[in-house]
């Protein structure tokens, strides 16, 4: 049996005044899939996500979200969406449980006490139910925010840069939780700038200047970029980086700690440049390396800027 599509949209376009902010974007997301949206600041990720779930009406395009028409049935879609924005707010002098009860009342949910109890349990907040929200660390605050937006049992969860400013352990816990929700059948759309978050998504889409440049699993996106990458290490990496910038076959030079990643789409030209430039530099070690997602995104961003300017 094939998994049904939670999202199936074609040519979504949004203009603000003269500017086309999202330009004919087509996306399919399966039910229970975690889809990450990446791209430079202001590239249209949030606008795309908001159109996908009925929060914003597209100027062009068509399609369905949760089996409902994104143009004609946006109100019905919205009711089945949980949206965790970057800036979530609580009453700091209310406990976790009181905050959730308050949210349940605002949204006029039925079975309020039961929903609050179930959500506390589901997100591992039950032991802390009496703790004041104002005294929580960043990671627990974020978990409370997640609890607040899944209490009405949405089928689609939108996370806008969910772990900005949260420490690595809390980020990992948060992502474990997101995977549990997805395994229960919730579809999740995430916008992020973090490579480690991207790598936790089932699929990713890269958007720049309103255009969808690539999408797929991390491995597919890396393979589709067709990059050859070499890792250089040894003395004088700074000087070597300056020599290699813009040389034939070199599309990008990026330091990763003490190692220099040098990448290009023309593998033979890149190898020839490295042979001639690095030859004669004593102590420099070169090895072929797998391109990282970050290498690919930096390249895509550079290419998009060239096309845009
Ligand atoms: N309601 C609006 N009216 C006018 N312009 C808008 C509106 N909403 C967004 N924009 C503009 O559209 C562009 C895309 O914004 P969007 O928030 O979708 O980008 P983003 O990729 O999510 O960015 P970031 O990574 O910075 O959050 C930006 O230039 C933004 O200023």
TrEMBL record:
Keyword hit for ATP-binding: yes
Keywords: ATP-binding, Nucleotide-binding
UniProt domain ABC transporter: residue ranges: 7-234
Protein name from the UniProt record: ABC transporter ATP-binding protein
PROSITE patterns named among the record's database cross-references: ABC_TRANSPORTER_1, ABC_TRANSPORTER_2
CDD domains hit by this protein: ABC_DR_subfamily_A
InterPro entries: AAA+_ATPase, ABC_transporter-like_ATP-bd, ABC_transporter-like_CS, P-loop_NTPase
Record carries keyword Protein biosynthesis: no
GO molecular function: ATP binding; ATP hydrolysis activity
């Amino acid at each position: 049996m094939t998994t049904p599509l939670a999202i199936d949209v074609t040519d979504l376009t949004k203009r603000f005044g003269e500017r086309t902010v999202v330009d004919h974007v087509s996306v399919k997301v399966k039910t229970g899939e975690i889809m990450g949206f990446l791209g430079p600041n202001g590239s249209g990720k949030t606008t795309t996500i908001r159109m996908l779930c009925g929060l914003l009406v597209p100027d062009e395009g068509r399609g369905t979200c949760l089996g409902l028409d994104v143009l004609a049935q946006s109100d019905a879609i919205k009711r089945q969406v949980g949206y965790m924005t970057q800036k979530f707010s609580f009453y700091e002098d209310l406990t976790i449980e009181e905050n959730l009860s308050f949210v349940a009342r605002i949204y006029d949910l039925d079975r309020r006490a039961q929903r609050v109890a179930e959500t506390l349990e589901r997100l591992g907040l039950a032991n802390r139910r009496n703790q004041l929200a104002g005294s929580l660390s960043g990671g627990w605050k974020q978990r409370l925010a997640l609890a607040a937006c899944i209490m009405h049992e949405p089928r689609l969860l939108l996370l806008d840069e969910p772990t900005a400013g949260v420490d690595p352990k809390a980020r990992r816990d948060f992502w474990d939780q997101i995977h549990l929700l997805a395994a229960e059948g919730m579809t999740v759309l995430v916008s992020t700038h973090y490579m480690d978050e991207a790598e936790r998504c089932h699929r990713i889409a890269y958007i720049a200047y309103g255009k969808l440049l690539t999408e797929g699993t991390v491995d597919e996106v890396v393979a589709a970029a067709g990059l050859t990458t070499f890792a250089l290490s040894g003395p004088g990496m700074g000087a070597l980086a300056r020599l290699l910038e813009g040389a034939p076959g070199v599309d990008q030079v990026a330091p990763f700690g003490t190692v220099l990643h040098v990448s290009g789409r023309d593998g033979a030209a890149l190898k020839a440049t490295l042979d001639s430039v690095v030859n004669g530099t004593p102590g420099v070690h070169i090895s072929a390396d797998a391109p990282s997602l970050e290498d690919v995104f930096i390249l895509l961003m550079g290419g998009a800027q060239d096309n845009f300017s």
